[in-house]
Description:
Four copies of one chain form a homotetramer. The first copy, chain A, is built from twelve helices and no strands. Chain A is mainly α. Chain A has two domains: 3-135, Four Helix Bundle (Hemerythrin (Met), subunit A); 148-264, Helix Hairpins. Chains in contact: A-B, A-C, A-D, B-C, B-D, C-D. At the A-D interface, α2, α8, α11 and α12 of A face α9, α11 and α12 of D.
Amino acid sequence: MTLRARLHRELHIGSWPNGKLTLLNKLVVWAILAALGVGIVATEPNIREPYQHEILIAEFAFGMIFLLEYLARIYAAPEREGPESDFSKRVKFMVSPIGLIDLLVVLVSLAPFFIANAAVLRVIRLLRIVSILKFSRFSAAMREIGAALRERSYDLLVCATLAFVLVLLGAAGLYWVEGSIQPEAFGSIPRALWWAVITLTTVGYGDVYPITTPGRMIGMLVAIGGVLLVALPTGIVAAAFSDAMQRRRKAMKKALEEIEAKTDL
Amino acid sequence: MTLRARLHRELHIGSWPNGKLTLLNKLVVWAILAALGVGIVATEPNIREPYQHEILIAEFAFGMIFLLEYLARIYAAPEREGPESDFSKRVKFMVSPIGLIDLLVVLVSLAPFFIANAAVLRVIRLLRIVSILKFSRFSAAMREIGAALRERSYDLLVCATLAFVLVLLGAAGLYWVEGSIQPEAFGSIPRALWWAVITLTTVGYGDVYPITTPGRMIGMLVAIGGVLLVALPTGIVAAAFSDAMQRRRKAMKKALEEIEAKTDL
Amino acid sequence: MTLRARLHRELHIGSWPNGKLTLLNKLVVWAILAALGVGIVATEPNIREPYQHEILIAEFAFGMIFLLEYLARIYAAPEREGPESDFSKRVKFMVSPIGLIDLLVVLVSLAPFFIANAAVLRVIRLLRIVSILKFSRFSAAMREIGAALRERSYDLLVCATLAFVLVLLGAAGLYWVEGSIQPEAFGSIPRALWWAVITLTTVGYGDVYPITTPGRMIGMLVAIGGVLLVALPTGIVAAAFSDAMQRRRKAMKKALEEIEAKTDL
Amino acid sequence: MTLRARLHRELHIGSWPNGKLTLLNKLVVWAILAALGVGIVATEPNIREPYQHEILIAEFAFGMIFLLEYLARIYAAPEREGPESDFSKRVKFMVSPIGLIDLLVVLVSLAPFFIANAAVLRVIRLLRIVSILKFSRFSAAMREIGAALRERSYDLLVCATLAFVLVLLGAAGLYWVEGSIQPEAFGSIPRALWWAVITLTTVGYGDVYPITTPGRMIGMLVAIGGVLLVALPTGIVAAAFSDAMQRRRKAMKKALEEIEAKTDL
C-alpha cells in the first residue's frame, strides 16, 4: 500500500467500518480541541498579557498543523473511488463543504497574524469537529435523536407554541400591571419579555421580578407554567425514544428470524 | 369553479384533506403574527415615539387586511354545504365563534384610532391564530396531547395537590419561623406563598430567601420537593405518551391485518 | 330509608361505588378549603386589622359547621355494618383516626377564641381533606403513584445517595476553597450546604455564590450534577409508570379473554 | 461455629444471600454516618469552639471504633475461602482496595490529633460507605442504572456535546456583545463561561446577567436551550430504563416458561 493510500485511509473520515475514528483523525480532533482551548483562554486579559509570546507560538503551531493536514488531504484526494482524473478529484475535495471548512479553519488559525482580535471567529473550529464526527458512531446517535425528534415535531411545535403564548401573555400581563411601577423592567412588552422568558425557563436571575400582588400572581402562573413546559416536551421526547428503541428491537428480531428461516431451507 | 367557490376553499380553513393550510390562510397567519409583532414592539417608548407615524400606518394596513378578509369570508359563506339560503348561511358565519373572533380582531386592529393605549387588547389576535390552527395537523397533535393528559388527569391532580400542600406547608413554616425576622417577606402566609412558589418551581429569583438555620432547612426541603415535583408529572406524562403511541401502532397494525384478511378473500 | 341511614351514606366517605364523593362530602371539602383560605388570608396584617370582626365571625361559622358535621357523624355511626351495639360503634368512630382528625379540626377551628395566633395550627385542616380524599378515585391514583415509586425505591435511593454525596462534596469543596474568602457563606461545611442544595436543585437564589475560579469550577460541576439528578429520577419514574400502565393493560386483556373463554363454554 | 467465623460472616460484607447487610455492617454504616456528621458540624466555628472538648472525645471514640473494626477484619480474614496460609490471607486483605480504604478511614479519623484542620480529608469516609454498599441490594440498583446509562452512552454524549457547543457559543456571544460593557463579567470567554453554565443549567444566580438587548437575546436562547438540554437526556434515560425493565420482564417470562416446559416432560 502506497503512502498516499495510507494517508487517504487515515485522514478521510469514515474509512473504518466499525465507525471508530482513525488515529490521525483522533489526533486532529484533539488538536482542534487544544486550539479551541488556547483560543478561549487567550481572550482572558490576565493570561493574554503575560503569555502573549507563548500564545502566538501556539496559535502559529496549530495553524501549521491544520495547514499540513489540509495539504495532505488534497494530496491524498485522488485515492477516492471514481473515474475522474487526479486533478479533478482534488478540486472536487477543495470545493466540497468539508474541504471549505478545512480551508476556513486554516485561515482562521492564521488570522491573528493579519487581523486583530479574531477570537470570536475561531469558534468556527467547532464546525470542523462536527465535520469529523459526522462519520463516526457519534453521528449515528445524532441521527437517531434527530429522527426521534422529527417524528414528534408537531407535538413539540405545540409545546413551543404554548410556551410562546404563555411568555406573551405573561409579558403583556406584567406590562399592564407593573408597567408604570417598574418602567425600567416592564415599561413595554419587549422589555417584559426578558423577565417572562427567564421565569418560564426557571432560570430566574432576579434582576427583574414583580413586586405587586397582581404582578406576583401572574409571576406564579408563569413559573408554574414553566414546570409544565419542562414536563411536556420531556415526556414527548421520552416516549419518542422509547418507541424508537422498541421498533429497532423488533426490526432486529424480524431480520434474525428471516436469516434463521433461510438457513433452515 | 367560480371566484366565490375558490375564495371559500382558500379561506375556510380545513378545506385541504392533508391537513395543510391553504395559501391564503398561511398569509393570514403571517399577517396576524406581523400585526402582533408590530403591536408588541409599539409598546416600547423608545420605538413608539420616533416611528409614531409608521406604526399608525402599519396598524391601519393590518386593520384593512383583516377587514377585507372578514368581508371576503362573509361573501364566500354561502358556498358552505347545507340547504339554507345564502343570507342565513352568512348570518350563521357571523354569529359563529370564528366569525365573532374575526370581527373582534378587526375591531381591535382599528381600535387605536378610537381608544388610547389599546396594546393589551391586541393580544386577542392570538385567539385568531388558534382558530385557524384548529383545523390543521397542528390541531391533531394538540388533541393527542390533551387526550394523553386527560387520561392521566387523576395522577396529575395528585401531583398538583402534593405541590399545593408542599407550598402551603413551606409558606406556613417560614411564616412561623421567620415571620418576625423578615416581616416584609414572611410576615404573613400569603406573603410567604410568593417565596414558596418561586422556590418550588426552582425559579429562585433571590428577592426573598430564608436567613435563619431552621428557615433554610425548610427552604432546602421545598427546593428538593421542587425537583421531585418536576420528576413526577414528567414521568406520568412520558408514560401517557408512550402508551398512546403504542396503542396507535397496535390499532394501525390491526386495521392493516383486517384489510389484508379481506383482500385474501 | 331513615334520616340516619341517609346521613350515613352522605357523610361516610366512599359509600358510592363509582369513587365519586357524595354531595355532603363535597360541601365539607369546600368548607375546609374556604376555612383554610380564610385562615391563610387572616395572617396578613393588612387584612386582619380592618376585617378583624368579619374574620372572627367566619372562623366561628366554620367551627360550627365542622362541629355539626362531627356530631352528625357520631349520630350516624351506628349505621355501619357490624354486630356491635350503637354505643360501641359510636365510640369506635370517635377513637378511629378519621374521628380524631375530625375532632382536632373542630378544636383547631374554635381555638382562636381560646389561644392567640393559632394560624399555623390550622394547617392541620389539610389532614382532614386528605382523610376524605382517601376514599375517592383520587386516592386510587395516589396509591398507584406510591406503588410505582415503591417498586423502584432502590433506584431512587441510589439517586438520593448520589445527590447527598454531590451536595456534601460540593459543600466541602467550597468550604475548602472559599471558606476564608467568604466566611459568612462558606466558613463551615454546614453553611456551605445551603449553597450546595440551592445550586443542585437549580433554584439558585444568588444570595451566596462562588467568586473565585476554583470555586466557580466546583459550582459548575454541582450545577451540571443538578441537571443530571433531575434527569435520572425522572427517567426512573417515567419507566416505572410506563411499566405499571402496560401491566394493567395486559392484566385487563387477560381477564377479558378468560371471561370470553367461559362464555364460549 | 467459632467466634472468628462469626466475625467473618458479620463483617465481610455480602455474606448474606438476600443482599441485606449484616447487623455489624449496619452498625459500621451508622458509625461512619455519625462520624461524618460530627466531622461536618465540627467545621462550624459557632459549634466547634464551645464544644471543642466533646468533639475531640467523639472523634477519638469514632477513631477507636474504626480501628477495632479494622483489626477484627484482619483477625477474621483467614476465614476466607482459599488454599493460602492465614498470614497471606491477612496480607491479601490489607493490600486489597477495601482494606486500604479501611486503613485510610482509621488514619483520617485519628488525624486531628496529629494534623490541624483535617476536615476536608474526612470526607474520605464516604468511600468507606460506598465500599460497604457495594455488596448490598443497593449496589444491584446502582449497576442497573449504570448499565442503562452506558447502553445509551452515545446518545448522552451527543447531549453533552450539544450542551458544550451551546455553552461555548453563548459565552463567545456575550463576550463579543457585552465584553466591553461588563468587563468584569464578560471580559473574556472563560469569564463568560461561568454565566453560560449557570444559565444553561437554569440555576441563574443573578450575579451576572446580560443588560443589552442583543445580550439578552443570546441569554434567552441559552435559557431555552437549557430547558431542551434537560428534556433530551431525561427522555433518553427514561427510554433506557423503560427498555431495561421490559427486557428483564421478558427474560423472566422466558425462564419461567422453560422451567414449566421441563416440568411437563
